[in-house]
Amino acid sequence: MPPKSPKKVVAKKAKKAKKVKDPNAPKRPMSSYMYWMQQEGRDAAKGKLGAGATIGEVAKEAGRVWGKFSDADKAKWKAKAAAAGPSK
Description:
By secondary structure, the protein is mostly helical.
């Protein structure tokens, strides 16, 4: 049996201090997807899945539906998002 190799000593990185979040800081505006989801997305997904669908199933189905939209279909929702304010 060959001899065991010596263990390597690995230096651990120091943890970064957690950034303090300003509770008074403004929130980012909603995206065009979120505007669509609030007004039509949930209903569209629940219509396909049925009333007994879980939140996760509804979110996945809504994402699939949104992904199939063309840029022309998304234009209405992008306009609402742009009117709400600049995004990062």
